[in-house]
């Protein structure tokens, strides 16, 4: 697992100097952080809950080029979960 402490430290400093969350996300991405890293940093340094941090990152300008891929992934995951639930119902004899 990647050590995010240096990114957290820098992000705290940026926010402390009045940088926007978008500026922090841009810096994180520039420094090689991925979406999941950015979410973790925001939960720690910006005091966001997990759901808010996820939405903030996914709908940010910084990560806008990945939004379509993220949405497609989540749609496939939801469809797989629905299909698995349906198969379990059939296995248990439910209509």
Descriptive notes:
The protein is mostly helical and 95 residues long. Helices cover 71% and strands 0% of the residues. It is built from five helices and no strands. The protein starts with a helix and ends with a helix.
Short description:
This protein is mainly alpha-helical.
Feature tags:
95 residues, mainly alpha
The assembly state of the depicted protein chains is single chain
State the order of secondary-structure elements, H for helix, E for strand: HHHHH
Estimate percent helicity.
Answer: over 70%
Task: List the total number of helices.
Answer: 5
| Beta-strand share of residues | under 5%
**SSE class:** mainly alpha
Question: From the alpha-carbon coordinates, what is the Rg to the nearest angstrom?
Answer: 18 Å
């Amino acid at each position: 697992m990647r050590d995010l402490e240096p990114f957290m430290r820098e992000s705290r400093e940026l926010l402390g100097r009045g940088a926007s969350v978008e500026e922090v996300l841009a810096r994180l991405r520039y420094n090689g952080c991925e979406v999941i890293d950015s979410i973790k940093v925001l939960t720690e340094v910006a005091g966001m809950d997990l759901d808010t941090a996820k939405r903030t990152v996914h709908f940010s300008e910084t990560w806008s080029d990945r939004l379509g891929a993220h949405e497609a992934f989540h749609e496939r995951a939801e469809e797989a979960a629905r299909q698995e639930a349906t198969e379990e119902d059939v296995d248990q004899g439910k209509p």
